[in-house]
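Input record (one chain):
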Amino acid sequence: MTAPLDRGELLDRILQLLEQLDREAYVADPAIATSLHLALELHKPLLIEGHAGVGKTEIAKVLARLLGTDLIRLQCYEGLDASTALYEWNYARQLLHIRLQESDGHAPADASNVPVGLDRRSQAVRIRTPSEDSP
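The corresponding structure, as predicted from the sequence alone:
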């Protein structure tokens, strides 16, 4: 575990993040930069809510550019649950995949683990940071 930062180091990092945001043409105040910094340091998600047009999506785009990672947006609405947001069940596709594997003599021991039965929806995938890609 790393040693805690002193107040001066913490403020320097937040100011550095503010400058990076500014270079990406995102105007942020110290409170936003502090929230972003803490979310990054603690490896925790940050819920940003607000009215349309206030910059919620833009801050995510800028942060993705700064981190050198992809951003895939999920449009949330009332009644959206995890199974609907993340996957759409495709029974016919899974069955076809199982039949093809059976015909080749490579049928899976547990058909419930066949990944092709789930189609990732275009608007709902997980954002991965470069550190998550390494083993």
